[in-house]
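During the reporting period the student researcher (J.K.) took over the structure-prediction task from the postdoctoral fellow and processed the backlog of single-chain submissions. One of the processed entries is reproduced below for the supervisory committee.
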Amino acid sequence: MGLGTVAVTGAAGNIGSVVREALRGEAARLVLVDRVPLTPQAEYETVHTVDLRDAAAVESALAGADRVLHLGGVPDEAPLADLLEANVLGTHHVLEAAQRTGIGRVVPAGSNRVTGISRPG
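J.K. obtained the following structure tokens:
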């Protein structure tokens, strides 16, 4: 339980779901954030249905967390405008919320999918 309160964005996704299970017993409290509705599976879980493009909602959901694992965003190919909105602006909102609410650590996931990938040829 040494991790304190951990917020996970993208908690309903493929990686977020695995991380959710892995953090059981490691975090005193899990704050699960996704645009897809989730159901708490334990008394120490809190869920928030939030679109990362909504800065105020992101800040509200993350308030009180000690650290954030940021996995939220569009994981697949999409038009650049969609990737910018969800991945770049969403990450900006998570980082700004962390700074404003005093969260000590944010771990962002990295991927070539953040801004898309060019097809050969």
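The committee noted the following: The mean pLDDT is 90.
J.K. will present the remaining backlog at the next meeting.
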